[in-house]
Amino acid sequence: MADHPAELTHPASALVARWSSYLAHDRRRSPHTVRAYEATAHRLIDFLGEHLGDAVQPDSLLDLTAADLRAFLADRRRDGLGAASVARELSGVRAFLRYASEQEGRSGQLPRTRGPKRARTLPRPAAPDDAVNLAENAAEAASEPWIGARDLAILLLLYGAGLRVAEAMSLTADMLPIGPTLRVTGKRSKTRVVPIVDAAREAIDDYVRQCPYSLSGSDPLFVGARGGPLNPDLVRRSVASARRRLGLPDTLTPHALRHSFATHLLARGADLRSLQELLGHASLSSTQIYTAVDAAHLLDVYRHAHPRA
Fold first, then answer.
1. What is the C-alpha to C-alpha distance for residues 142 and 288, in angstroms, rounded to an integer?
2. What confidence tens digit (pLDDT) does each residue in 187-223 have?
3. For a Cys staple, 238 with which of 33, 67, 68, 138, CB 3.0–4.6 Å?
4. Which residues are catalytic?
5. Where do the DSSP E strands lie in 159-219?
6. Before 177, cis peptide (omega within 30)?
7. Distance (Å, rounded) from C-alpha 165 to C-alpha 257?
């Protein structure tokens, strides 16, 4: 990595390289996660070299103490990282040290240290009308009709099927024509089947009819203005512009459309296990946050509508 020149000659560089390969191929982590974890490992090693006053050998990583890790986290806080970012950094450090321990044939106790406390924020769902208006406004403001049709299709997929932006970008043309369900590949290459509402399916069909580029085989379903893969940042910018035009809150992001999908399904009686499958969450605990979202929404409705509230 360019910002870690020491990795080329550092005694622990080979260990980091093996870990990076392990994450990508054995654990099937996303390229973004692999890069982030690899950078964390190099930052830890660079810091320890200064903190301990000597180059860090792979086996010496197993002798680290909780105080060493706390010093590293404190250093990261001084770099300006917030609590959530430091917690992610600690998660990467733990994973790296666990791998180092396994490589050395030791399964000893890793140093224990707590990450910073983080206030748990609830997703803020959009009202159904706001979600649809956002998608339609983004489409109307597009530079070309076919691009507007594309943006409408994407945003209706996020809200109507609970897709992540990256999942929508990963859809391929061989899925056409879209039927009542769609197989989606999510995090860690986990696949799930999601139902597609008529409005989203019709929007996709309209986009395909208008798209000036040939869409076939394993080509991306959603393409950019020049026919190549669509940059997800363009979707986020389109949403931000539509949000400003409509006077909607900054919290209404593309990912908030997925939260809205989950919250509205729960409000209409969906059970948590079904919701977990539809969202592609690895654990039920990730889905249970939506019970609090729904309760918060109901309380907000009560406070604004009940004469005695």
1. 37
2. 777 788 888 888 889 999 999 999 999 998 999 999 9
3. 138
4. 164, 187, 255, 258, 281, 290
5. 181-185, 191-195
6. yes
7. 10
Give all domains of the chain, ordered by start, each with its CATH number.
Answer: 5-103 (1.10.150), 128-305 (1.10.443.10)
CA angle 244, 249, 252 (to 5 degrees): 95
- Kindly report, residue by residue over 237-287, the tens digit of the pLDDT: 999 999 899 888 888 888 888 878 777 676 666 666 666 666 766 665 666
Written as one string, the DSSP assignment of 53-122 is: TSPPPGGGGGG--HHHHHHHHHHHHHTT--HHHHHHHHHHHHHHHHHHHHHTT--PPPPP-PPPP---PP
Q: From CA 37, how far away is CA 44, in angstroms rounded? A: 11
Q: Report DSSP state, residue 181.
A: E
For residue 31, which of 39, 43, 23 has the smallest C-alpha distance? 23
The angle at the Cα of 184, spanning 228 to 294, to the nearest 5 degrees, equals: 115
